[in-house]
Write a structure and sequence with these properties.
Shape of chain A: globular
Oligomer: heterotrimer
Chains: A alpha/beta (257), B mainly alpha (281), C mainly alpha (287)
Radius of gyration of chain A: 19 Å
Distance between the termini of chain C: 16 Å
Largest sheet of chain C: none
Largest sheet of chain A: 6 strands, mixed
Number of helices of chain C: 12
Strand content of chain C: under 5%
Distance between the termini of chain A: 57 Å
Shape of chain C: globular
Order of helices and strands of chain C: HHHHHHHHHHHH
Helix content of chain C: over 70%
Structural class of chain C: mainly alpha
Order of helices and strands of chain A: EEEHEEEHHHEHEHEEHH
Structural class of chain A: alpha/beta
Chain lengths: 257, 281, 287
């Protein structure tokens, strides 16, 4: 269980101006939950996630994972980044083994685990490939497999599918839900895409100006196909989220040629 | 010195750019760094004694013998202290770099755009880029005599090869979509070259110029070591001949300072010419 | 070979033209008063008189006659001289490169661990890097004498400075995302260095290898010009002393062959060690 208690985080811009990336945030995430953090860019969702990961120190407040205060990265919290973080100098197999190697596991155990997760993400034949030989979507699968293989009960995902094309993104969303249902790990997933949140989340936390603006349960049935998301509940949730994102409405303006 | 090698070097920011608020701290750290260097030098002097004169003595020797020097006359060097030698070496390095750089950049840019030119230049650059130019210096001394020409031609040749290779690589790295975009806006080939390709290549051309200039000092000096009548290299080899380590190190120090100043000027020029570039921090 | 010629016929013509041009220049150039010192030595001179003349530099009283002691100039002596001095130069070159590379990278990694150390060392490194290496040849000679050790340390110093600066720069340029990713997978600091930082800086270190290879050739020849009295560089100086231009040309050709070979070896090693690199196939085929 993750507990965020009165977390605040101040950044000083190079111009000298102070930015409050997190403003007294408190929330709790239960074991095996799939939570999406959603908001406009620059409104604190990534900062919150990185703070939970231990990559970003808080100015005040604290974060507890199973009662222990977070002071840095730990093996119980895995992370998948938006950027391509698969190490290009290691084969796919070695990439997936990395977390286990960090935990000093025996070679045969690492091999077995890596094979299991390669299979699970559909890359069984690519263990000996170099990352440069894979497509962007396949490398993302490697990153996910590496995070799961590390054995962390909590997985933090920072817009992992943000740079992918639509079809690949949908494939990976299905894969992720499948893995989540089979492993019941806790997943905290940052996104700015309302549709993605509706497809994935059990619960959507909307961030605005460094605060929690809303906390919305998503009681939709799975699989969350087009029909399910277009149901009354689905549409209502999506409207409620969009309301917080405060989209600009176009005003009448003179024509441009 | 072999030139092909330099081109493999990635252009990386030599120092991290720091914003205004950090500037004071950075300056303090730099001053502390200089102090540390002098301290280490002094410490080394205490350890090895007369083989390494302390910084104060060397700096004093450089200063006292800068304009005129009784020592130099005694050693058979032209009168007038370090100054005329510094001017001679600086002139060689900068003139050689300027001529060679222009020729090399031009030939590189042309080679990048014309396969025929590329084919013509390749064997020449291949040989000149691989052979340590130093080896060729005796020939230059024979052909051009003990004169400034030999030194300048040597520096020139080296700079031309470096700039040629950097220019080739710069064009290769330039994303073709810029040129295509300019073409869709109706620009002529000539304008595309002067308005798009050339500015786009500037950062790497400056990288090449920096490499060439950095090496030019050493090349000029070693040619002078081998046999010319003027230049800081001549002073260094002459003082070495009489085992006067203080005067030798003073000459080296002055050469370093001039090289540092020239490098700083070049970097300032680069900052101005490529001020559109995003700064990494 | 034929496809090579068909694709690069212009380069081939240029090469032939250069060779022929040199020969023509050799015959057109003003006659030098000294028989051994043509202003532009023609090829038949370089590969004839000049090569045999290299036997002057064989100085051991066995295996071949020693011209210095009144012996005859022989092709065997020339071969022995070239082999002996080449071995010495290569030995200094390789050892200097190794010592410089290992020392520079190790020091660079150590300095990179502390931002304060990096900032404090900055000005010294800048000064040391700007100071022209070749102009320092007499300094090393003065400190260490005309010994093998002096030549090796001179090469190591020149190479080491480049690796030191290169390593510090490369470590600063390692994408933070890789380090963060490794940390979230539970890697310790030393594992991050071993498994992430070291391989990540390898491409940049390899670009330094080509740079330092050229520098090392210059440094070792420079050291032999002025310091230690053996090796290829010293053969050039001996030849220059008597204006044996033909011999200088022959030795220059020898150095070109060695330099090309050493680049080829480095490229092979690089290709092998960086085969994971996305641009491995493209950038390595440059020359």
């Amino acid at each position: 269980m993750i507990k965020v208690i009165n977390a605040s985080c101040l950044f000083r811009h190079t111009s000298g101006e102070e930015v409050r990336a997190l403003d007294d945030v408190s929330l709790a995430i239960e074991v095996s939950e799939f939570v999406c953090l959603l908001g406009r860019s620059g409104h604190g969702k990534s900062t919150l996630l990185r703070s939970v990961a231990g990559l970003n120190p808080l100015t005040s407040g604290r974060i507890e994972v199973d009662g222990a205060v977070v002071r840095g990265p730990g093996v119980e919290r895995g992370m998948v980044f938006q950027e391509d973080t698969v190490f290009p100098w290691m084969t796919v197999q070695k990439n997936i083994e990395f977390g286990l190697r960090a935990q000093n596991r025996a070679p045969h155990e690492r091999k077995r685990e890596a094979a299991r997760w390669l299979e699970a993400v559909g890359l069984a034949r690519f263990g000996e490939s170099w990352p440069k030989e894979l497509s962007g979507g396949m490398r993302k699968r490697v990153a996910i497999a590496a995070a799961f293989a590390g054995g962390a009960p909590i997985l933090l995902m920072d817009e992992p599918f943000g740079a992918l094309d639509y079809v690949t993104r949908r494939d990976l969303q299905s894969l992720l839900i499948d893995l989540w249902q089979r492993t019941r790990r806790t997943i905290v997933f940052v996104t700015h895409d309302v549709e993605e949140a509706l497809v994935l989340a059990e619960r959507v936390i909307v961030m605005r100006r460094g605060r929690v603006a809303d906390d919305i349960p998503v009681p939709l049935a799975r699989p969350r196909d087009e029909d399910e998301r277009a149901s009354r509940t689905g549409v209502e949730i999506s409207k409620r989220i969009l309301h917080h994102l405060a989209l600009e409405t176009p005003v009448a303006a003179p024509a441009l040629t | 010195m072999s030139a092909t090698a330099f081109v493999k070097m990635t252009v990386s920011p030599s120092s991290l750019r720091i914003s205004g608020a950090e500037w004071g701290r950075q300056l303090a750290l730099n001053l502390a760094g200089v102090a540390l260097f002098l301290l280490a030098w002094q410490g080394a002097h205490v350890l090895v004694g007369q083989y390494l004169p302390p910084p104060a003595v060397v700096i004093q020797a450089a200063y006292r013998n800068l304009w005129s020097s009784p020592h130099f006359v005694g050693l058979g060097l032209p009168a007038g202290g370090y100054w005329p030698h510094l001017v001679s070496t600086t002139g060689t390095a900068i003139l050689g770099c300027a001529i060679g750089g222009l020729v090399g950049a031009a030939s590189g840019l042309v080679s990048a755009h014309s396969p025929t030119a590329f084919q013509i230049a390749r064997p020449v650059v291949g040989v000149l880029g691989t052979v340590p130019i130093l080896v060729a210096s005796p020939f230059f001394l024979i052909w051009f005599g003990v004169s400034d020409t030999a030194k300048i031609v040597l520096v020139c040749l080296y700079s031309a090869v470096v700039l040629h290779l950097y220019a080739l690589r710069a064009v290769e790295h330039l994303h073709p979509s810029f040129q295509e975009y300019a073409r869709t806006l109706g620009a002529s080939s000539r304008r595309i070259f002067f308005w798009v390709s050339l500015p786009g290549c500037m950062p790497e051309l400056f990288g090449g110029l920096r490499t060439a200039l950095g090496a030019a000092w050493g090349l000029a000096a070693i040619t002078e070591l081998l046999g010319t009548d003027r230049g800081i290299g001549r002073v260094i080899i002459t003082t070495w001949g009489v085992q006067d380590i203080t005067l030798m190190m003073a000459g080296l120090l002055l050469l370093c300072l001039v090289a540092l100043a020239a490098d700083a000027l070049l970097m300032a020029a680069r900052r101005h010419v490529t001020r559109w570039m995003p700064r990494t921090s | 070979m034929t496809t090579f010629l068909r694709r690069n016929w212009i380069s081939a013509i240029v090469i032939v033209a250069l060779i022929v041009g040199w020969e023509v220049a050799g015959h057109l150039a003003p006659k030098s008063p000294l028989r051994e010192s043509p202003i532009v030595p023609p090829w038949e001179f370089v590969f004839g008189r000049a090569i045999i003349g290299l036997s002057d530099y064989w100085k051991f009283p066995f295996w071949a006659p020693v011209p210095e002691l009144g012996g005859e100039q022989t092709l065997l002596g020339a071969g022995l001289a070239v082999g002996y001095h080449s071995l010495l130069t290569l030995y200094r070159l390789v050892l200097g490169l190794l010592v410089g590379a290992v020392g520079g990278v190790a020091l660079g990694l150590a300095v990179s661990r502390s931002p304060l150390a990096r900032a404090l060392l900055g000005p010294s490194l800048h000064l040391v890097r700007t100071c022209p290496l070749l102009a320092m040849t007499p300094l090393f000679q003065f400190w260490l004498g005309g010994t093998n050790l002096a030549a090796i340390l001179f090469v190591a110093y020149g190479v080491g400075v480049i690796y030191l600066v290169g390593t510090i720069n490369a470590v600063a340029n390692v994408p933070v995302k890789f380090i963060e990713s490794a940390l979230t997978m539970g890697a310790t600091k030393s594992m991050v260095y071993r498994a992430v930082v070291l391989p990540a800086i390898l491409p940049e270190l390899f670009s330094s290898i080509f740079l330092t290879l050229g520098l090392a050739w210059s440094a070792v020849i420079g050291a032999e010009y002025i310091g230690v009295d053996s090796g290829i560089g010293r053969m050039i100086i001996w030849s220059e002393y008597f204006s044996n231009t033909g011999r200088i040309a022959a030795i220059t050709i020898l150095i070109i062959v060695y330099a090309f070979a050493s680049y080829a070896v480095c490229r092979r090693v690089q290709r092998r060690m960086l085969r994971w690199h996305p641009q491995a196939d493209r950038s390595l085929a440059a020359i």
